Amino acid sequence: MRYSGALGGDEFLILLPDLTDDxxxxxxxxxIISGIEAPVMFDGHMCHVSxxxxxxxxxxxxxxxxxxxxxxxxxxxxxxxxxxPVAVAFGLRQL
Length: 95
Fold this sequence. Notes:
By secondary structure, the chain is an alpha+beta fold. It has helices at residues 22-37, 68-82; strands at 3-6, 12-15, 40-42, 45-47, 53-57, 90-94. It has one domain (3-94). The protein is elongated, with a radius of gyration of 15 Å.
């Protein structure tokens, strides 16, 4: 099951409750970033954007212990970590 939605002008949320494998999440995150960062021709100009992605993984025993507000705070921390120069636009946090 997958859910997605817009949180703000340039912030989006994707919930993948059945996907907890770090390797698979990293692959998916890199594919999402590559898709967003692909150059696009607009009005005769090549346009480039950058993206940062924050990922939070919750263990099975915590599914009922974390409320949505806390989860969003954790995602914000992961996105902030992804924006550091060494993070290569991808932040991963384990709860």
